[in-house]
Design brief:
The chain is an alpha/beta fold. It has a single domain, classed as Rossmann fold (3-Layer(aba) Sandwich). The chain is built from 9 helices and 6 strands, in the order ααβααβααβαβαβαβ. The chain has helices spanning about 1-15, 35-45, 85-95, 100-110, 130-135, 140-150, 175-185, 195-200, 215-225; strands spanning about 75-80, 120-125, 165, 190, 200-210, 230-239. A 4-stranded parallel sheet has the order 1-6-5-2, with helices on both faces. It has a two-stranded antiparallel ribbon with strand order 3-4. Helix 3 packs across helix 4 (about 100-110). The radius of gyration is 19 Å and the shape is globular.
């Protein structure tokens, strides 16, 4: 036991874990160094988020009180999308770090007002197309949603496999607003055998990054068509 522990300590000294954002050596089992953690905290504290669309009004003027076109009540995001969030999202999407997505949900759930989850019956993640999920091995939005549910002590709130992405879609990253809407239009459905799960229920849709909300809008339309009661959206970041 002593030898095993000493060997582990020696290996950590020679090959230390590195911060996934800035690659500084870590002194503990965190994903991020203290400096990058503080950047996240400052990011959150600088947000003057619109209670409807989640847009930071210090960055961009919000007009949603005059022009709300979404089939859900509101969006809440932990952070503004910046270089730190970009690096984190890249790691849990493309570097096989599904536990990072879970830990981000569990760690920063404290930023979500308790009132946001009042009377919520289920947390449902934006799904991947099954071939993309098979290739990646997991859905990062599922992992993030599970971490959130765990943080609130209600693991049962997370309900998997309710929404299905019925056709492949392009990545939204480099598409215009109009192209994003067309790309995901009609792409989601709640299978008949799952509809009783959402009927008359209050649901939170979870995604990693919300930009134009085209994807979450289509998810919401599918859930409403299945008879759900009310909808909110929660994301790691708002772009």
């Amino acid at each position: 036991m002593f030898f095993s522990s000493a060997l582990k300590n020696a290996l950590c000294f020679i090959f230390p874990r590195l911060c996934i954002v800035c690659t500084e050596p870590l002194l503990d089992d965190n994903w991020l160094c203290e400096a990058c953690i503080q950047k996240l905290i400052q990011n959150h504290s600088r947000r003057d988020a619109c209670p409807h669309c989640g847009q930071n009004r210090r960055i961009k003027r919000c007009t949603c009180e005059y022009n709300w076109q979404f089939p859900f009540e509101s969006i809440y995001s932990f952070f503004d999308f910046d270089e730190t969030i970009k690096a984190i999202a890249h790691e849990f999407k493309y570097a096989d770090k599904k536990s990072l997505a879970y830990d981000m949900g569990k760690t920063y759930a404290r930023f979500v007002p308790l009132s946001f989850f009042k009377d919520v019956d289920a947390i449902i993640a934006v799904p991947l197309f099954f071939l993309r999920k098979m290739k990646r091995g997991y859905n990062q939005a599922d992992c993030f949603a599970q971490g959130l549910a765990c943080a609130f002590g209600q693991k049962a709130l997370f309900v998997p496999n309710v929404l299905v992405r019925k056709r492949p879609t392009k990545t939204q990253t480099k598409l215009s607003r109009a192209q994003r809407q067309t790309n995901v239009q009609g792409a989601f459905v709640v299978p008949l055998r799952k509809r009783e799960i959402v009927r008359n229920k209050n649901i939170v849709i979870v995604d990693d990054i919300v930009t134009t909300a085209a994807t979450t809008r289509e998810c919401a339309l599918a859930l409403l068509a299945a008879g759900c009661g009310s909808l909110k959206v929660l994301s790691l970041a708002r772009d």
